[in-house]
Design brief:
This protein is mainly beta. The chain is about 15% helix and about 45% strand. The chain is built from five helices and 25 strands. The strands form six sheets. Strands 1, 2, 3, 4, 7, 8, 9, 15, 16, 20, 21, 23 and 24 form a 13-stranded mixed sheet that branches. Strands 11-14-13 form a three-stranded mixed sheet. Strands 18-17-19 form a three-stranded mixed sheet, covered by helices on one side. It is flat. The two termini are about 30 Å apart. The C terminus is likely disordered.
């Protein structure tokens, strides 16, 4: 069976049906802002590249006359592509094989560069928080209540998995907008904050249940040379989480890991509950100490995989079976030369199982 690439890309009121040079999409649980870069012809014929029935002059909402390009002998229905969009125009990207489209990006235009090819830089739904101001002081506030304040008036939805977490002594004094407030929660409170398209998750752990995606090294992985295998017992580390402000002797401290191991100290603000502190410490430890792979695999556009999904990884060469891994980021590259999905795995959710040597021989 042959596989043909298909794309549906809409920017503002214009849609592309296979008329893009390429696009690159990056999404991660460690980044609040999803990004996409779309490259299109610098000069577009309205009735060829854009999904428009007649000429550009007949498009509702188009101001001005179509202009002949200075860079080629194009008809009067041509227009400089970079003039068609402005910041804030909605962006929707669906990609797939043989007409089976999957959502890869939703967001907004951040800027347009009049290069050759023309480049459209896009941001996810965090863009709606970039210019939204916030002001407030809270001695105590639930995380979910704070997030409701941040997203009010936007098209952003909250994940139903937001934890019941209390924040204390919080203010917006140094946070000029809602996006910087999210960045503060991520940086100072050691919470994760990321979007799955227009759904926002903020919490102690990567708490959105995702799909399980099967990858077999040497089968549906194009490259696995960025993977490294690690053993938990080879790493001796102690995570020390210190809450609040002031001298350490008067601040709550939570430690997890190996006594006598290398000490990694993390200071957190606005969170002081022992249960929450231990959850943060255990999450930090899970990235430093586990048995299994870490790094990146490169596959085709399918299987479809999102950040926060689980990869079930097997190695047909070295007979490693089992092994589930948390997906903390993906990068999709789509263009005239094909499509690839890079999947970054960051920690093991289960320990890989090696097939005994005699069973390996019996399977050969």
């Amino acid at each position: 069976m042959s596989f043909k690439l298909y794309s549906k890309v809409t920017v503002g009121k214009y849609g592309f049906n296979g008329g893009i040079h390429e696009c690159t999409i990056k999404r991660s649980v460690h980044e609040i802002i999803d990004t996409a870069i779309i490259k299109i012809p610098a000069v577009a014929r309205a009735n060829d590249v854009l999904e428009i029935a007649s000429t550009l002059a007949s498009i509702a909402g188009f101001n001005g006359n179509p202009t002949k390009s200075k860079t080629g002998n194009y008809p009067d229905t041509s227009v400089e592509s970079s003039t068609l969009w402005r910041e804030g125009d909605p962006v929707n990207i669906l990609l797939g094989y043989n007409g089976d489209y999957r959502q890869e990006f939703k967001g907004f235009v951040r800027r347009v560069s009049p290069t050759i090819p023309a480049t459209i830089e896009c941001e996810g739904y965090a863009w709606q928080l970039r210019y939204k101001q916030i002001s407030g002081v809270w001695k105590s506030i639930k995380l979910k209540d704070l997030l409701q304040i941040l997203i009010a008036g936007t098209d952003i939805a909250l994940s139903p998995y937001i934890p019941d977490l209390a924040l204390t002594n919080l203010s917006t004094h140094h946070q000029p907008n809602c996006l910087t407030m999210l960045e503060y929660l991520k940086r100072k409170c050691h919470l994760v904050a990321y979007f799955i398209f227009n759904t926002l998750y903020v919490g102690i752990e990567e708490g959105i249940p995702g799909n399980t995606v099967m990858y077999r090294l040497g089968w549906n992985c194009i490259r696995d040379n960025k993977l490294k295998y690690r053993v938990a017992n080879d790493t001796k580390v102690l995570i020390r989480v210190v809450a609040g402000k002031g001298k350490n002797a008067k601040r709550p401290i939570t430690e997890v890991g190996d006594a006598g191991g290398s000490i990694i100290t993390e200071n957190i603000a606005n969170i002081g509950g022992p249960v929450d502190m231990k959850a943060i410490a255990n999450r930090l430890l899970s990235y430093k100490k586990y048995t299994g792979y870490e790094g990146q695999i490169s596959g085709f556009l399918q299987p479809y995989c999102n950040p926060s999904d689980t990869v079930q990884l097997s190695d047909v060469l070295y007979k490693v079976m089992g092994g589930s891994y948390f997906v903390d980021g993906i990068e999709v590259k789509f263009g005239m030369e094909g499509a690839r999905r890079d999947v970054h795995i960051s920690r093991a959710l289960s320990t890989p199982q090696f097939i005994p040597l005699q069973d390996q021989n019996s399977n050969n």
